[in-house]
Design goal:
It is a single chain. The protein contains 2 helices and no strands. It is about 55% helix and about 0% strand. It has a domain of about 50 residues. By secondary structure, it is an all-alpha fold.
């Protein structure tokens, strides 16, 4: 056993390798956020065929939630 806080002779500390997200993760993140925001605005303005609907609002919020969840996976 070695004293607390020391390493055996010859053993070096190797820091963990940094994780790097693929390029598509931030693209997906911002695409989902933008699509959700645009869908909510277009619904609010009544530009969607069939008029405004709570389902379009929920779909926009779902896209934004998907963007937030994707943001938690970004390294």
């Amino acid at each position: 056993m070695t004293p607390k806080g020391t390493r055996p002779a010859g053993e070096q500390f190797l820091p963990p390798e940094a994780k790097v997200s693929p390029a598509w993760v931030p693209i997906l993140l911002f695409s989902l956020l933008a699509a959700g925001t645009i869908l909510i605005i277009v619904n609010y303005l009544g530009l969607i065929p069939g008029g405004t609907s709570n389902w379009w609002l929920l779909a926009g919020l779902g896209l934004i939630l998907g963007g937030v969840i994707t943001a938690t996976q970004l390294h």
